[in-house]
Amino acid sequence: MIPISPSDVCFAVQDRFALAFRVLGGCLLLLALMYAPAARAADYELGPMDKVTVRVVEWQTAEGTFREWPTITGDYRVGPSGTLSLPFAGEIEAGGKTTSDIAKEIAKNLRQKLGLVDLPEASVEISEFRPIFVSGDVQTPGKYAFEPEMTVLKAVSLAGGMPRSAGQRFERDYFNARGDYDVIVAQHDRLVVKLARLQAELANAQEIKVPDDLIQKSEAKRLIADEVAIMQSRKSALDLQLNGLNELKTLYTNEISSLEKKMDVQNRQMDLTRKELKSIGGLADQGLVVNSRVMGLQTSVADMEGKLLDLDTASLRAKQEINKSTQNETDLQNERKAELANEIQATQAALDESNLKLQMNKNLMTEALVNAPAAAGQTNNSDVAMQYSIVRTSKGKTEEVSAEEGTTLLPGDVVKVKIDMERS
Fold first, then answer.
1. Same domain membership, residue 178 and residue 271
2. Number of domains into which the chain is organized
3. What is the pLDDT of residue 151?
4. Which of 94, 73, 74, 71 has the alpha carbon at shortest distance from 82?
5. Which of 53, 252, 332, 392 could be cross-linked to 318 through a Cys-Cys bond (beta carbons 3.0 to 4.6 Å apart)?
6. Which residues form the Soluble ligand binding domain (predicted)?
7. Which residue from 358, 375, 377, 355 is spatially nearest to 367, judged by alpha carbons?
8. What gap in Å lies between CA 114 and CA 123, rounded to an integer?
């Protein structure tokens, strides 16, 4: 039987610890990427004034853990020349590239400049898009923050709508209130579907029930589909984490089983050695056996007892890790429930606020119609003499195209608004 040293056992356990932490670390990184903000579109190309959040982590083989790099991790804004300036990684060309491209280049630069053996893990998220600009015949021309799904009508509403005059005040009031109302209705519908999704997640439901308020709306299917995709992604991420913990427990369970077998073998060897020592003990006293043999057997017994203690210690440590993994699994599920409860509370508060805003805008529209009944007809493009165009820069080229109220904007767009005085 080949004796097993404590160092062999320790190296085996360390290798398995490293494998387990890599699995768990990969799950955590995948979760972070899944929960990235919606603004981080995979095909969106960065440009000047975009703000990104950079995170860099490195696997520490000796410690068996991931370590975040606080010196590099943080928020950065793309400069006028289209570059990002990061510590150690240096100047990186960001203009016209996606966040995935930037993350790969950051990791590559860090590895080259710092002489790292392994490629560090880097992630880049868009935390703030570059703004849009509204110019022309609006109440407040200027720069405004961009939001996903922003349209020309929303941008004009942010800019205060058409400029006011004494004879047009109530018509403008109605137009502005109507624009705000449409924006809030869209936000309200998204919040209703989000609340339904959160409640389904908390109840571990497989489907999202269509809210009664949206059954008759054409956008309901699209909104539900978007929330279903989010729910499935979050569930997959949670399952990956739980599976990682289960694999970790299985790894430790197998380790304990292996250690117990080794302990059994070691006990049998020690019993045989003790019997042999006992059988020649009397002969040694009579001088029939040399004392060196007796001492050798006694030394073997002592070594075996030490190895048994090492194996027993390793087994206890593995059992502790199993208990720790079980506790982590419970904590993960409890934290998930608490997070869902907080999100439900926040979404419900936002929904209540949107209901108040809807009612306020209804009252404003009613007041405007009382003073100017003809204002209702001016919300149609055929009656309101408004002309829209978008000035957009793409791949270094700037062009101006005509637009409608529902035209979707991109970050950096300039919305030009003009009132046709002859038609109005």
1. yes
2. 3
3. 93
4. 94
5. 252
6. 132-167
7. 375
8. 18
What is the predicted pLDDT for the residue at 414?
95
What's residue 229's pLDDT?
Answer: 86
Query: Are 181 and 264 within one domain?
Result: yes
pTM of the complete model: 0.40
pLDDT score for 34: 40
Mention every residue, 6+ apart, whose C-beta is less than 8 A from residue 381: 404, 405
Domain assignment present for 378: no
Specify the pLDDT at position 297.
76
252 and 281 housed in the same domain: yes
Query: What b/e readout covers 35-45, taking b as 16+ CB neighbours within 10 angstroms?
Result: eeeebbeeebb
φ, ψ for residue 130, nearest 5 deg:
-65, 150
**Domain assignment of residue 12, yes or no:** no
Q: Are residues 142 and 201 in the same domain?
A: no
Indicate whether 237 and 364 sit together in one domain. Answer: yes
Find, among 128, 123, 145, the residue nearest to 33 by Cα: 123
Residue 59 and residue 398: Cα distance in Å, rounded? 44
Question: CB neighbours of 68 closer than 8 A, spacing ≥ 6?
Answer: 55, 56, 57
| Partners of 125 in the β-ladder | 53
Distance of alpha carbon 311 from alpha carbon 308, whole angstroms: 5
Range of the domain at 317: 170-371
What parts of the chain have a pLDDT lower than 50? 1-41, 166-167, 379-384, 421-424
Same-domain pairing of 195 and 278: yes
Residue 354 vs residues 34, 159, 222, 351: alpha-carbon distances, Å: 28, 20, 21, 5
Give the span between the Cα atoms of 25 and 66, in whole angstroms.
Answer: 7
272-290 pLDDT per residue, tens: 888 877 777 666 556 555 6
